[in-house]
Amino acid sequence: MNTEIQQSSSTTYPGASNGSKASNGSARASAVAAVTGYKSSHPPMNFQEIPTGDLFNANVFSTKVMKKRLPKEIYKKLIRTIEEGEKLDCSTADVVASAIKDWAIEKGATHYAHVFYPLTGSTAEKHDSFLTPDGDGGAIAEFSGSQLIQGEPDGSSFPTGGIRATFEARGYTIWDVTSPAYILENSNGVTLCIPTAFVSWTGEALDKKTPVLRSMQALNTQAQRILNLFGHADGNLVSSTAGPEQEYFLVDRNFYYARPDLLNAGRTLFGAKPPKGQEFDDHYFGAIPDRVLAFMFEAERELFKLGIPIKTRHNEVAPGQFEIAPLFESANIATDHQQLLMTTLRRTAEKHGMVCLTHEKPFAGLNGSGKHVNWSMGSASQGNLLNPGETPHKNAQFLLFCAAVIRAVHKHQGVLRSVVASAGNDHRLGANEAPPAIISVFLGDQLTDVFEQIKMGGANSSIPRGTLTVGADVLPPLPKDAGDRNRTSPFAFTGNRFEFRAVGSNQSIAGPLVAMNTIVADSLDFCATRLEEATGGDPKKLHSELQKLLTEIMNEHGAIVFNGDGYSDEWHAEAEKRGLLNLKTTVDALPALQTPEAKELFTKYEVLSERELASRHEIYLEQYIMSISVELNLTIKMAKTMIFPAVIRYQSELVSNCANLKMLGYDFDTLTLDHVTDLVKTLQDSIGELELAATECESDDMVAEANHCCNVLLPLMNKVRSVADELEGIVADDLWPLPTYQEMLFIK
Ligand code: ADP
Ligand code: MG
Question: Is residue 422 within 6 Å of ligand 1 at its C-beta?
């Protein structure tokens, strides 16, 4: 047992002498004072001068700008690449570069940045100046096609999972023409940002974007085969679409900086349950507080300028929790925009004296934050391929695409679970506020009924949607949705798309999108191959062969469909009976990326090579270990240097109080002192235990290390926390060093 912390039994503990309130100049007290006296120094926006609607795409090198500024031929070529996936021709780059440069410089840009998305899940930028000395004592702005197309950031410190050793550190950024370039404004200058892929010298993907693009290509290839069978050989690109809903918390920056845990881990590692939490549901969809609304208006305006089509905002369930959602876009653009959205929320929050927390579980005992990723696929001519129409049982093409998704999710549950695995999301999944760690598909009444009929041999009817009548004559009757919602399902059909609800609020949506695109490509491939063979090219045979195929798919994979309460214990038992995976933690889930099936899946569709897949497994494991290690260090440091000293100050006050009373001859009991003394001992012991355990696994084997984090360190950290949280309810409030949950969540 580690006994490094010596409990002082005398009253001479520094800062606690004479039982004075020596700690009262605490960061907490100043934070509370600053927050309650908050006055915005941020100038209000002049939203009437240029209405936000007029600003949409103002800072984007959009197709409209391209059309205006590029020679017709070049413009057409570029559009063919963007809209039809045609190979990009290098000779056009110089012309485009010069047009982008002129446009950016007119907007005040002096620098350009290749923006890329390393495997950390964050956004990275390398900035270069347009300006070069002209040899005559001045400087000129230059930007060539090759500078547009390719960059070489050093980037050797980004994790590569063994793909590239530092001695062979060449990594390239490559212009992604399908994601528009944009201008980022700062009060002191303007930068042209160019979204890029980030690859190694060998062409291997070191980033999140490259696999998204590859998986979209795979999905298109296989979807075209299905559309061909249905006689839709128009060749229009089938794109996967994504609409991510982002949940987040806002806290005042003064509290944030008074909490080392928020500052370094993004979540609170200590903090007793506040007297009032979210039980009244009075925050949910409530009136948005003024200061928050000011932040939202500004953030949305900035996002609008960047071409991000923000649509929805509201208060979420927990106090201090909010949501923002854009309209859906092509998966690749939606992914880039999602990253930019998180950055913009953080930047704008700062201007309003707040910090935007995107961690999945900033506050224990309150709802965590997710990022529901709405996903579908469609083409210009076919529209949304997951649109069932009024009578889904007659919509053979829809049924096939939908069944392909069901098969994909069942067959690759492990992969879907692994792409949402992270240390942060572990606090959320399966905790009765977010979907369980068991992946299942919610279809709703109407589709479930249709697919049940299909299981029995064929569907002949669809339950009609009906009309919603409310019983008050002044309210108009409404057409009813075909099915209700299910908030407990990780993968829910919501009318014309699937909503992957298990994604964490801090995660890049790239991983989930790559997984969905690839597993569905695999299913579509399976279906196309079967139907092509069975019909021998005879369209008349399609209907009967399709019927057989759908019945087979539903019989083999229907076990993944579950419309009930995903939070219930019965579901856990039932899921086990059905043979579904229940991968509770990151450590349980990540191995799904290394199974022979996963390797075959990703290599077959050329989305990730075995080495690229292995590198992701390694990096995600490493990130998990690093996150827990930071939390471990913070737990120990805060417990020893903030909580323990406060507690023994209080204890010495109690001691001197008892001594004084005794001296005066009072008869009293020492109940509080005894209780505090017990807890001090438990606190000390649990810190000691944690410190010891921290030294116990110095293995080179990352899997062993991750297991140690999950099964040994986290429970011990929780033990330290639970004693500290109990003490928070006893120790004199003026001595408690950390802003409390009550303060952080309710003082606005
Ligand atoms: P809710 O909270 O009711 O689930 P929101 O309006 O917050 O719905 O978000 C729904 C998201 O789904 C939006 O981003 C919307 O654009 C997106 N969405 C709608 N249709 C599609 C589609 N075909 N593909 C992908 N996303 C879609
Ligand atoms: Mg929503």
Answer: no
Please tell me the residue having the least CA distance from ligand 1 atom 17. 243
The atom number, within ligand 1, closest to the CA of 375 reads 25
| DSSP type of residue 340 | H
Asked if 374 and 499 touch (Cβ cutoff 8 Å), the reply is: yes
How many whole angstroms from 327 Cα to the centroid of ligand 1?
6
- How many residues would you count in the chain? 748
Query: Which is nearest to 368 in space by CA: 326, 321, 422?
Result: 321
Q: Which amino acid is at 90?
A: C
Instruction: Say if ligand 1 is within 6 A of residue 245 CB.
Output: yes
Is 387's C-beta closer than 6 angstroms to any atom of ligand 1? no
354: β partners? 252
Residue with tokens 């979540």: 267
State whether the beta carbon of 233 lies less than 6 angstroms from ligand 1: no
Choose which residue among 374, 402, 484 to substitute to test ligand 1 binding: the one with the highest number of ligand atoms within 8 A of its C-beta: 374
Q: Nearest ligand to the C-alpha of residue 322?
A: 2
Mean pLDDT calculated for residue range 481-503: 88
Q: According to the model, what pLDDT value does residue 169 have?
A: 66
Read off the amino acid at residue 211. P
> Considering Cα of 603, then 606, then 610, then 613, what sign does the dihedral take?
negative
* Residue 270 DSSP code: -
Give the closest ligand to the alpha carbon of residue 495: 1
- The predicted-structure confidence for 228-280, as pLDDT tens digits, reads as follows 999 999 989 999 999 999 999 999 999 999 999 999 999 999 999 988 877 77
* Alpha-carbon torsion, ordered 423, 503, 513, 325, to 10 deg: -130
Determine the atom of ligand 1 nearest the C-alpha atom of 328.
Answer: 16
Mutate to test the pocket of ligand 1, among 497, 500, 501, 520 (most ligand atoms within 8 A of CB): 497
Cβ-count burial 404-440 (b if 16+ within 10 Å, e if not): bbbbbbbbbbbbbbbbbbbbbbbbbbbbebbbbbbbb
Look over the chain and give the mean of its residue pLDDT values, rounded to a whole number: 90
Which residues, at least 6 apart from 547, have a Cβ–Cβ distance to it below 8 Å?
A: 454, 457, 458
Assess whether the C-beta atom of 243 lies below 6 angstroms from ligand 1.
yes
Measure 274 CA to ligand 2 centroid, in angstroms. 26
Helix, coil or strand: residue 123: coil
Q: Which-ligand-closest: CA of 513?
A: 1
**500 in Cβ contact with 199 (< 8 Å):** no
Express each pLDDT in 94-140 by its tens digit.
889 889 999 999 999 999 999 999 999 999 998 999 988 989 999 98
Question: Is any ligand 1 atom within 6 A of the Cβ of residue 247?
Answer: no
Of the candidates 366, 372, 373, the one whose C-alpha atom is nearest the C-alpha of residue 428 is 366
- What is the full DSSP assignment across 451-506? HHHHHTT---------EE--S-TTSPPEEPPSS---TT-SEEE-SSSEEETT-BTT
Of the chain, the end-to-end C-alpha distance in Å amounts to 44
Which has the closest alpha carbon to 267: 721, 669, 687? 721
Pocket flag, ligand 1, residue 384 (CB < 6 Å): yes
The set of residues, in sequence order, having a beta carbon less than 8 Å from that of 76 and lying 6+ positions away, is none
Please, how many CA atoms are within 13 Å of residue 621, restricted to the half-sphere of its CB? 25
**What pLDDT, on the 0 to 100 scale, is given for residue 19?**
34
Q: Is the CB of 370 under 6 A from ligand 1?
A: no
Measured in whole angstroms, how far is the alpha carbon of residue 598 from the centre of its chain? 22
Give the number of the atom of ligand 1 that is nearest the alpha carbon of residue 494: 4
Angle at 685 between CA 680 and CA 690, to 5 degrees: 130
CA distance linking residue 447 with residue 462, whole number of Å: 8
pLDDT band at 21 (very low <50, low <70, confident <90, very high): very low
**Maximum distance among all alpha carbons in the chain?**
105
Tokens 């390719």 found at: 150
Which residue puts its alpha carbon closest to atom 1 of ligand 1? 245
